Amino acid sequence: MSGQAEWIRTDHSNSGGCVDQRPKRVSTTPFVTSLPTAPATMTILAEMQQAQLLMVAGFIMLGWVLARRQIRMRKRVNQESRVANKELKAIREQKQPAVPLSDAPAATQRWQVAMFETQRELCAELDTRIAIVQSLVQQMDRRIEILGLTPPATIDTGAGRPQRQDTLDT
Fold first, then answer.
1. What are the entry keywords (predicted)?
2. If DSSP codes are grouped into helix, strand and coil, which group holds residue 164?
3. 89 in helix, strand or coil?
């Protein structure tokens, strides 16, 4: 049969001759008798839904914890970078004094002044001596021209130092 309802005539002799003419469904597929009853099915579904809900709740909590951690790290990094940027800006804006050691103790500044004075005196002495030597060389050049003398000839010996010709003859 193709699973359609048939009219089955049943005779109930004990019921006083009533004939049951209810349609009965006759199916070709056998029923599975191991299916749980309705309340058991509901508890299994409820347990599965509860497990799934707990898993989803766990994922949401995990995401929330990781997001808070990430936000805190960004906040800390931003704060540290702001502090570092302020320090760099202060270093860039800091102007070096025109005179070295201007913020040094008084004894060091006195020593520095004494060293500058010594340097100035030594430079003045050297400049004076250089000027004297230059004037003497100019005077010698004029006298040599007046007398008509020529300096002795030199010969290059290849040793890196020229020798006078009069010393080579001996």
1. Membrane, Transmembrane, Transmembrane helix
2. strand
3. helix
pTM over 0.85: no
Q: What is the dihedral of CA 99, 103, 104, 110, to 10 degrees?
A: 50
Strand partners, 163: 155
CA separation for the pair 3, 5 (Å, rounded): 7
Look at phi and psi of residue 111 and say left if phi exceeds 0, alpha if psi is from -120 to 50, else beta: alpha
* Residue 6: partners with Cβ closer than 8 Å, 6 or more residues away: 23, 24, 26
Q: Which amino acid is at 19?
A: V
- Across residues 30-51, what is the average pLDDT? 67
Amino acid letter for position 129: R
Give the DSSP per-residue string, 10-77: EE-TTTTS-EE--EEE--SSPPPTTPPPHHHHHHHHHHHHHHHHHHHHHHHHHHHHHHHHHHHHHHHH
43 pLDDT tier (thresholds 50, 70, 90): confident
Which residues in 91-109 are b (16+ Cβ under 10 Å) and which e? eeeeeeeeeeeeeeeeeee
